[in-house]
């Protein structure tokens, strides 16, 4: 894979490549060069993740600037396939559709970031950083974002439901570490984020003492 600097696109012989992937609307200038001979046959995949142009198209239509719409339509039609991360974007760009729109749910950027994260963060290291040992059993319970400052009653229902299962598991696994429940509720990106950790070292004692 070769990553090109957009400011130097004019210095490249596109016939050298077996295919080109553009990942932004800003790549339009590059695509314009790919519309010229002898580069018209170079396979092109254009990934569109933003809706800014779709909003401007409405203004272009109101102002009667058909030449701008036509110019963008020509650029979109040059791509062998235009890829969107969700189904709403193709509808917003329907005025530019030449039959080459395709939807792959999820952003490839997120997938690449996840792969990069996995390579540099192991499960053992993450546990150690958070103060947990390899033997600790950690259960995450995710609640509603509408409960900003207090835990939902749903958590009590969950604990009541899974209590017998955990007691049974505690009998079967000898020497295992304590159970740690992490409750997440509220808006994790806002000031009301609420994260509560409850360690149930003596949890089984309140349900049924494991028989040794």
Automatic annotation (TrEMBL):
Q: From the Swiss-Prot or TrEMBL record, give the protein name.
A: Uncharacterized protein
The superkingdom of the source organism is Eukaryota
Query: What's the source species for this entry?
Result: Carnegiea gigantea
């Amino acid at each position: 894979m070769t990553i090109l600097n957009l400011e130097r696109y004019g210095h490249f012989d596109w016939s050298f490549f077996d295919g080109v992937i553009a990942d932004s609307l800003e790549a339009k200038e590059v695509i314009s060069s790919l519309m010229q001979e002898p580069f018209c046959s170079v396979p092109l995949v254009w990934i569109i993740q933003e809706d800014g142009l779709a909003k401007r198209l409405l203004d272009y239509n109101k102002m009667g600037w058909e030449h701008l719409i036509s110019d963008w339509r020509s650029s979109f039609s040059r791509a062998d396939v235009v890829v969107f991360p969700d189904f709403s974007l193709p509808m917003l760009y329907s005025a530019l559709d030449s039959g080459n729109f395709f939807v792959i749910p999820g952003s490839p950027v997120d997938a690449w970031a996840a792969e990069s994260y996995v390579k540099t963060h192991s499960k053992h290291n993450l546990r150690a950083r958070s103060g947990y040992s390899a033997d600790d059993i950690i259960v995450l319970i995710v609640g509603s974002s509408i409960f900003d400052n207090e835990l939902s009653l749903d958590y009590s229902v969950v604990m009541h439901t899974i209590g017998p299962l955990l007691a049974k598991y505690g009998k079967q696994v000898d020497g295992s570490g304590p159970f740690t429940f992490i409750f997440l509720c509220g808006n994790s990106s806002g000031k009301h984020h609420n994260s509560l950790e409850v360690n149930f070292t003596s949890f089984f004692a309140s349900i049924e003492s494991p028989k040794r």
